[in-house]
Specification:
single chain, 161 residues, alpha+beta, 4-stranded antiparallel beta sheet, 3 helices, 9 strands, 43% helix
Length: 161
Amino acid sequence: MTIYEKKYPKKAHLMTLMLLILIISLAILSVVIARADYMPAVWRVVLFVSNTLCLLTMLFTFWYRAKRYIDLRVKGMPAVVMTDSELEIYNVFGENTIIPWDEIADFERNRSKEWKTCRPVYKNEQKNKRRYFQRAYKDLIVMDYLDVSEKELLEELWKHL
């Protein structure tokens, strides 16, 4: 079974546009702060560093969402592929994650303000710790824009266990 992402709602496109506007605004503000003569040098440095960190975080978020959109919507790559022997999950950071069904014990769901996700829980505890940073797993399935519902996806995943 191959699962693709469906068309994003206008709200998602609007949020991306707002993020891009914020990135441009922070970049301009960073230049203004760096050139400001009216404030002490220590505050200029502190504000410039904090603005730069915010800018880098926003750029990463924009890159992540744009790459995911281009790969899954424009190029038409599948988000999830289920065969009789393995599960393949799209990974924005590189090659897709391929997991044999006999290595998976269960699936863990998570709902946040941003999106709904699920990820495989491995029988081998060491593999459960594979992540890029806190709560960002390499094998995460983002369920918000898939062409199947959350319930249908989880039922199909549990069928293979």
